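Reply to dn_fold:

You asked what the input looked like. This is it:
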Amino acid sequence: MNLLDIYSHDFPLFIEELIDTPEFKRLDKIGMNCGCEYTSFPMFTNGKEYTRYKHSIGVALIVWHFTKDVKQSIAGLLHDISSPVFAHVIDFLNNDYENQESTEEKTEEIIENSEEIQKILTKYNLSTKDVCNYHLYPIADNDSPLLSADRLEYTLGNGFYYSFKSLEEIKNMYDDLCVGENRFRVDEISFTSLHKALEFTKLSLSNSKVYLSHEDRFSMQYLADLLKLSIDKKIITLEDLYTTEDLVISKLKNDKELKVKFDKFTKFSQVITKKEKPEDGYWINIPAKRRYINPQLISKKRVADLCEDMSKDIDDFLKYDFDVWVSGR
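and this is what came back:
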């Protein structure tokens, strides 16, 4: 059993066809942990392999499982097709570290310009506009903190990656899900039992604390600054960011200064924090996107409304203090 087996009992032909295109296969060389997996921080080095390729297939299978709709499933499958190398590191490069949306800018362009993807879409009587914006389909994506296929997959996927949950525990949570109408009169992936909803919400917060951790923010900003330097030095181009991580890393290592900095990046294993910025060294002081989920039960009530302790845990998470200077060693 693997995650994809949990998400859907069948693997539709249209997914098989699309994942064999060059544009989609590139995602197998783009990690889900935004370059942090190249460091030596224990939370990342102990993780399992998890790529945008696997995540995107997972999202498509979840959408298919709940909707049996080809158009929505393809939109879910292609939602990360424009992910650059190191994914959301590029948001840090663009000073978009709180919203983390700049990675989606090229989605329509890539789909429209792919001859192979266009042939497949035509086969299923679909256009680029039908599938280039998964935000149109609430099962695939919706506003935070609601539960969607995208948030569901990266929560379960990272839960497995970080070894927070076993496949059996993930399956038990997934099997508790159904589609129910929310108070906005829109369909939403919902839990049947409060027990499983609480277990999932706790998992979501565990993942979210990793996303906000000093190790994560420091790694992403360090790598963003390294990429900026490499672009300024004309070692890589903006177009290179839409190739693969292996290719970009090899180009960085061809420059003596960048190789030293990247090798240092891979050796970071501890973070240091200071309330005031030290005069020497590389230090960062930045916030990050607060990702969290407050899932619904089929009763239309949400976990935070039904559990006071969980409501407090979410409130505490949203008050996370970023006012600290962070460095690594």
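Strands lie at 177-181, 187-191, 271-274, 296-297, 325-328.
Hope that clears it up.
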